[in-house]
Amino acid sequence: MSQRYTGNEPDDAADESAPGYAGWRVVFVCFVMAVVCWGFGFYGHAFYLAELHRIHGWPAGLISMATSVYYLCAAVLLIFISDGLQKFGARTCTLVGTAAFAISVSALPFVTAPGQVFAVYLVMALGWATMSVAAITNILGQWFKSKRGLAISLALNGASFSGVVVVPALVLATAATNFTTTMLVSAALIVLIMVPLAVKVFPERSLEPLHSVLSSPDAMGGDSTWTRARALRSRAFWSVSGPFSLSLLSQAGFLVHLIAFLEPSVGRSAAGLAMAVTTAMAIVGRLSLGVIADKTDQRLAATLSLVSQAAALAVMISSSNSTLLLLSCAMYGFSVGNLITFPALIIQREFPAASFGMIVGLSTAITQIIYSFGPGLLGIVRDASGSYTAALLLCISLNLIAAAIVLRRPAAG
């Protein structure tokens, strides 16, 4: 890299293990960014669905279809997130995302027709694209090389932490006040927290990523000539994007419907607690993965995660016991965060480091395009069958298919 190190930008020679390394401040901001992004842009949709259904009586399938459109639109933007970060910088992209979340969150209480929900979610999609996993991994790629896997795992723990804090807080605040007050206060907090952090920690200009020899010696396509077109033609690329698309189709759909699924059996408060347990275990899972990320067979670990989630869903179908349901949520949640983290870690290991940002962005976009149909699909299956049993059986099938695919390690190209 040509720029001089001033303490507010990465340095190839810096010791990434040192507590004082500036990149760890970036990890903290990315952690907070993930809390906001997943809290209001992912887990929050379960809360929005339940509240909008309660207030307006709109069908769950219709509301969850708006969530699917939201994911789909955000996925299109994700394809170009690496280009956007290089052109405008992390600070500008994060501020744009912050504004998008604040505007959309504050607008939700005032919708009066389903079409307005779709419009609000389109604004929110810009926030998701500029602050979710593809943006975070690209930003951290500008600051880390030897510790990139650990940095990504720590930062994305914010996604799991958000489920523990944000959704239960939204449920409790709405019970104590009302939906409108809760969402307006949430929008104000998003701005008050994110703007100072982004301005203080992220450099004003864009930065070049730190390249390294993170890839294994037999990484697929050892040169740096990967393009989006080449990736789309590559079995290696689809061996990552394919199975995680299916698994996150299942996971995104299930998590959006989790409160609605559990509420008839355990009540609203206990359903909110179940969401907190699910995401709390996701933190445990991510921390566990962060410790062993550079030493384990990540494809085998992903397979075990997928099978364990299928087993947890099977228990949920067969039992209405509140304790067993909470334990099943804990088992399911242990792998929730890791299934989001695994693609970047596998790409880091199996593809050239110089192509890391582009391939992660493209893989994340394709995965999201597919899993954007999850909430709507499960809503349709639920409405058609009259219960969530068929929807959860679909989730189990998707997980098992994904587990079989991810084990197959393709040859180069």
Key phrases:
globular; Growth Hormone, Chain: A; mainly alpha; 413 residues; 17 helices; 76% helix
Overview of this structure, please?
The protein is mostly helical and 413 residues long. It has a single domain, classed as MFS general substrate transporter like domains (Growth Hormone, Chain: A, Up-down Bundle). The chain is built from 17 helices and no strands. α6 runs antiparallel to α7 and α12 runs antiparallel to α14. The longest helix is centred in the middle third of the chain and has 32 residues.
In short:
By secondary structure, this protein is mostly helical. The chain is built from 17 helices and no strands. It is globular.
Computed CA radius of gyration, to the nearest angstrom: 20 Å
> How is the biggest beta sheet arranged?
none
The count of helical stretches stands at 17
CATH H level, superfamily name: MFS general substrate transporter like domains
| Strand portion | under 5%
Supply the number of structural domains: 1
Write down the secondary-structure element order: HHHHHHHHHHHHHHHHH
Whole-number mean pLDDT:
84
Assembly form of the protein: single chain
CATH class: Mainly Alpha
N-end to C-end Cα span: 29 Å
Helix content: over 70%
Low confidence ranges: 1-6
Number of strands: 0
Helix/strand/pairing category: mainly alpha
CATH topology, which one?
Growth Hormone, Chain: A
* CATH architectural group: Up-down Bundle
* Apparent shape: globular
